Amino acid sequence: ENSGTDPKNLRVKLVLLGDSGVGKSCIVLRFVRGQFDPTSKVTVGASFLSQTLALEDSTTVKFEIWDTAGQERYAALAPLYYRGAGAAIVVYDITSSESFNKAQYWVKELQKHGSPDMIMALVGNKADLHDNRSVSSQDAQEYAERNTMFSIETSAKTADNINQLFEEIAKRLSRPTP
Ligand code: GDP
Ligand code: MG
């Protein structure tokens, strides 16, 4: 319920970054359409989708989502997508330590070139493949804390933590920490 605060209608540009194949497009499709398509196509350049989320205090947050391609040949375009972004989701695959290294590269890029008050989430996707885990939750969490991000593990396949991820971003946008 509305606890005396004015409900707000917020809008935020959100960018997804991370290695190719970690599940960025599947995370977006799960959030926006509630679907998982195991035959989804490789993103070329970038794609745009939007989705509005309502919080418990009836604040709404409209996410304008830029889902980028992870391929090297598009890396030079990335600044176009994270420029002016209020939030970024940096994704790795929990079964690939190489993708975790790549995520750290993107975090540094955002720290160098992104807006200083950008909300950043570090997302370990494919949590359903925990039997093949090669990045520990603790390492990811410690890295995130050192870099003033929050971390969460998701599965676009099972939908685990997908809504929670966007809700956490929405909450941080609507109630910026001092
Ligand atoms: P992107 O290049 O980061 O956009 O990755 P995609 O979203 O295209 O996904 C790459 C591959 O990983 C596809 O074959 C997906 O079906 C698969 N995938 C994505 N998310 C998950 C997940 O949460 N669990 C599992 N097991 N596979 C996933
Ligand atoms: Mg993609």
**Which segments are poorly predicted (pLDDT under 50) over 5 or more consecutive residues?**
none
What ligand species are in this complex?
guanosine-5'-diphosphate, magnesium ion
How many beta-strand runs?
6
What is the spatial order of strands in the main beta sheet? 2-3-1-4-5-6
Alpha-beta content class: alpha/beta
Q: Report the total helices.
A: 5
**Mind summarizing the main beta sheet?**
6 strands, mixed
First-to-last CA distance? 24 Å
Strand coverage percent: 25-35%
Helix content: 25-40%
Computed over alpha carbons, the radius of gyration is 15 Å
Keywords: Nucleotide-binding
GO molecular function, one term: GTPase activity
3D structure, described in words:
31% of the residues lie in helices and 26% in strands. The chain contains five helices and six strands; from the N terminus they run E-H-E-E-H-E-H-E-H-E-H. The chain has a six-stranded mixed sheet, with helices on both faces. The longest helix is centred in the middle third of the chain and has 17 residues, at 97-113. The protein is globular, with a radius of gyration of 15 Å. The relative contact order is 0.21. The mean pLDDT is 91. Bound molecules: guanosine-5'-diphosphate and magnesium ion. Magnesium ion is lined by residues 24-25, 43, 67.
